[in-house]
Design brief:
By secondary structure, the chain is α/β, with parallel strands linked by helices. It is built from 5 helices and 9 strands, in the order E-H-H-E-H-E-E-H-E-E-H-E-E-E. The protein has one domain: Rossmann fold, CATH 3.40.50.
Length: 209
């Protein structure tokens, strides 16, 4: 298993906080999960602003970055784009990256993490086994995996392992628009860009911060 991957995120989400910011974060996550393209475009614009103006995300997306959306929990239906795919397209429209490539595929379904009980969420190994990578002549030297929400980081770590296996010389990073903050009482504000790491530790994914 891959030892770790650098990741970035722009917003935070509190699943249980009772303060106003936490309630707003749940609304934001709901709009994102619903695939509301109006809000996805607005979020992508804010990411572009943070890359251009904020020290946290400066330089994370390069001019040669290939954006690779991480598939949802089931194999893609023809003509139906996932939230991550729409988000990656919106980021590309904002000038964040060189191109979009949907070559990371879900070939078998896994339990949906958002609705699974904490102890029954898919493991890194289960995610890894359900992924496959298409062949391509596209030069993939700098890859940014794109997802909508990251919790522990199991999906991202498994996706990164598959991509590293297919493209061993590529630099692979990940971007999730929102990171879950489930171990604190609430959040003070929604916009909280960061660059951190998701690591393979004691047989599971471990995310910092």
């Amino acid at each position: 298993m891959i030892r770790g991957i650098t990741f970035a995120s722009c917003y935070v989400y509190s699943p249980g906080g009772s303060d106003i910011a936490s309630e707003r974060s749940r609304l934001m996550r709901s709009l994102l999960k619903d695939g509301d393209t109006y809000f996805i475009d607005k979020y992508a614009d804010r990411v572009r602003q943070q890359v251009a103006e904020g020290p946290s995300l400066a330089g994370f997306f390069g001019p040669t970055s290939v954006l690779v959306p991480i598939p949802g929990s089931t194999p893609r239906r023809s003509g139906v784009a996932s939230v991550a795919e729409n988000l990656a397209g919106a980021l590309l429209d904002e000038g964040l990256g060189q191109c979009l490539w949907c070559g990371l595929q879900r070939i078998s379904p896994v339990r949906k993490s958002a609705t699974a009980a904490p102890g029954s969420r898919p493991t890194v190994g289960e995610h890894y086994a359900s992924f496959a990578v298409a062949t391509t002549a596209l030069p993939l030297h700098e890859i940014v995996l794109v997802d909508d929400v990251v919790t522990k980081g199991r999906t991202i770590l498994a996706a990164a392992a598959r991509m590293q296996e297919a493209f061993p010389l590529a630099e692979i990073r990940a971007f999730a628009l929102v990171r879950t903050m489930g171990l604190i009482p609430g959040v003070a504000h929604l916009l909280d860009p960061c660059v951190g790491e998701i690591m393979w530790r004691s047989g599971d994914a471990y995310r910092v911060p």
